[in-house]
Amino acid sequence: xxxxxxxxxxxxxxxxxxxxxxxxxxxxxxxxxxxxxxxxxxxxxxxxxxxxxxxxxxxxxxxxxxxxxxxxxxxxxxxxxxxxxxxxxxxxxxxxxxxxxxxxxxxxxxxxxxxxxxxxxxxxxxxxxxxxxxxxxxxxxxxxxxxxxxxxxxxxxxxxxxxxxxxxxxxxxxxxxxxxxxxxxxxxxxxxxxxxxxxxxxxxxxxxxxxxxx
Length: 214
Ligand SMILES: NC(=O)c1ccc[n+]([C@@H]2O[C@H](COP(=O)([O-])OP(=O)(O)OC[C@H]3O[C@@H](n4cnc5c(N)ncnc54)[C@H](OP(=O)(O)O)[C@@H]3O)[C@@H](O)[C@H]2O)c1
Hints:
The protein is globular. It is of the alpha/beta class. The strands form two sheets. An eight-stranded mixed beta sheet has the order 3-2-1-4-5-6-9-10, with helices on both faces. The protein is built from eight helices and ten strands. NADP nicotinamide-adenine-dinucleotide phosphate binds at residues 6-12, 31-32, 54, 67-70, 72, 75-76, 79, 91-93, 95, 132, 135-136. Residues 6-12, 31-32, 54, 67-70, 72, 75-76, 79, 91-93, 95, 132, 135-136 line the site of NADP nicotinamide-adenine-dinucleotide phosphate.
């Protein structure tokens, strides 16, 4: 599948390089696609990656991943151009930049979520929240001993969710459908729990959440 990934940082590079390693075609959308940093990320894509501008990458793929800092996300969505009908995966968390931002927590919540705001900005896109509840390094290998970490996804379009479920399974996650897009109001605080445990409670980053069923 052709996947455009907006952002080549921790999340964008982990998702892109992992999907490329599993045979997907990855097109990074970058503010400076020719920068050395972006070239290095593309070089880690097993020959299945390239980088274009944000608008070009968006136009080239039916599936787009947002992996931008929250403060830059509205601008990134504007740069996507026409996304009507596209599957738009929101991997962002609405927190301000830096450790102070992390400590301050989410900047939206309760009555809306980052994902729902993205859906308003990206008119006509089929938005699915995913890949926000675990630290980026684990996206390269979400299997802990014999247990796959859970990846919760939510969205209002079942076809789009099926696409994201497959892409999440391809990475090795145990993908769990949390319901409609408004469930992002729960998944975004869940990311804050992961961040709290990792950085405030000293767990480090090498863990994920799982689901037990009887
Ligand atoms: N880090 C994690 O473990 C983790 C896990 C789950 C979710 N998240 C969420 O995922 C998002 C990305 O996190 P990250 O750690 O990957 O951030 P990061 O390492 O800072 O990377 C952000 C990327 O976004 C690009 N970018 C910034 N402004 C842009 C714009 N206007 N248009 C297009 N691209 C733009 C940056 O490019 P330049 O470098 O050129 O500015 C960079 O490649 C955040 O919302 C974060 O909360 C993070």
